[in-house]
Specification:
The protein is of the alpha+beta class. About 30% of the residues lie in helices and about 30% in strands. Strands 2-1-3 form a 3-stranded antiparallel beta sheet. It is globular and about 40 Å long.
């Protein structure tokens, strides 16, 4: 998960405390990783991010969908060797 104020509010505040989708205390916001931090670690290992895709909750459908732009809470990264 991305370490943003939005992930703190939605990932912990809503998912854990309000909706109880996961057990309270499951997430530690301080351990969330920003895409820039992930990219830095991957570069140090000889890899580079090739794709970054967000996963967002859609309240209208009640499900999740992929997003090419919104990586503020959940995201997937694909890395390739340089």
């Amino acid at each position: 998960m991305n370490r943003t104020l939005r992930s703190l509010a939605l990932g912990i505040g809503v998912a854990e405390l309000l909706l109880r989708w996961v057990e309270p205390g499951t997430h530690d916001w301080r351990k969330f990783v920003r895409p820039s931090e992930l990219a830095r670690g991957l570069r140090a290992a000889g890899l580079e991010i090739a794709d970054l895709t967000g996963l967002v909750f859609d309240p209208l459908s009640g499900g999740f969908r992929l997003s090419a732009r919104d990586v503020a809470v959940n995201y997937f990264a694909t890395a390739v060797r340089n």
